[in-house]
Amino acid sequence: MHPTLAWQVLLNRLGRRRLVIFAVFACAYFLSNFFRSANAVIANDLAEEFSLSAAELGLMTGLFYVVFAAVQLPLGGALDRVGPRMVTPALMLLAAVGSVVYSQAGSFGELALGRTLIGAGMGGVLMGAYKAFSQWFSASRFSTAAGLVVGLGALGSLATGAPLAWAAQTYGWRAVFMGSSLGVLLSAAALVLFVRNAPAGAPWPVVGAREARLRDVFGDRLFWYIAPLNLAVVGTLLSSQGLWAGPYLMDALGLTRLQAGSVITVAAVGGFAGYLLSGTLADRFGHRRVVVGGIGCFIAAQVGLVLAAVLPAGGEGSGGVALLGTAHVLYFAFGFGGAFNIMLMAHARVAFPAAVTGRAVTMVNMFGLGGTAVIQWSLGLLIDSFGRDEAGRHVPLAFGVAFGITAFLCAVALAWYAGMGRAGVSARCGGPRPPEAC
Predict the structure, then answer these.
(1) The whole model's pTM is what?
(2) Tell me, what CATH number does 158's domain have?
(3) Which end of the chain, N or C, is surrounded by fewer C-beta atoms within 10 Å?
């Protein structure tokens, strides 16, 4: 279905309250993506002003993911019991404080503290949206709404490109983060004012939510088919987006910084398209089928990246038109297919009872964020083990091996996920489709 038509279908089926809830969560998720990606643009400013090493920059930036993942453990139960209307904005207050601390930092420790608070504060935005959507949207429309909110929120990552670079150069990065704290406060206030945990007349908390436990999620075999795939895919996707895409394109393929930037932008556009389309496709054809197709595209793109790095045309510093065009195609497919990971959390939402949807979705998300921390660090060790060439660049073979390993991990996890039916585990779904179509 065309994205415009998807919007029309969604709007036609939404009441005013649903539309407002969707909009305020989309704005909050925009801010979450902005904070997640901002350091990539101002890294040189931070390194110069605070005399930071690459290791310190990596540690400080990675704190966002570590804390973000840790928050998921208590978050699921809080969303199931208290609801997203208060839990999500309460956490966002930490991000507002963290943004102020970051903007006024005078040392590495203060930068790390600010980044930590921002990660904790934004950790409940997407999961809060999913919990709210599980009450306000029917199971047959949930995936469309979930994909759209992530697609729109992902524009926050695009805002950390040229717009953030211009703002940081014009006003300074400190002023940008001080202003961002105000944006977080306004967004949190909008959630409190306009979001309701459930439609009028619907019980809240959901029956059984107070008695539910994490073991109800971890004890379900279906969870262990979904979570490993999210770990492999999200870990690979965010590791590339957040760190390794640039070195791969410049060191392995020999592209210039400007050319590499254009490729990374194309990957973001591919991700945006994937987020917008994945939900509509899942609501129509079922989560399992759509995930297999989308992640299959993601794996194929990684295989292409391996070949581009190790074949003679790669790594020679040519930056030629043909190689640049190949990189654009591969990274568009990489971003597009990787975006389908969001349907794994949507699958968890429709597969688990309403009393534990918050726990189920946050635990799947925690696996993905944990995978990011492990895979990003592991790839760094692997790439460094190959050494550098005479020009100080990482050798192309290092990236070929790295992407080969991530492609293999994703392929194994996808085969495990796709084989749940043969193992006697129903995919389950909440709409009119039979379980085998999910």
Answers:
(1) 0.78
(2) 1.20.1250.20
(3) N
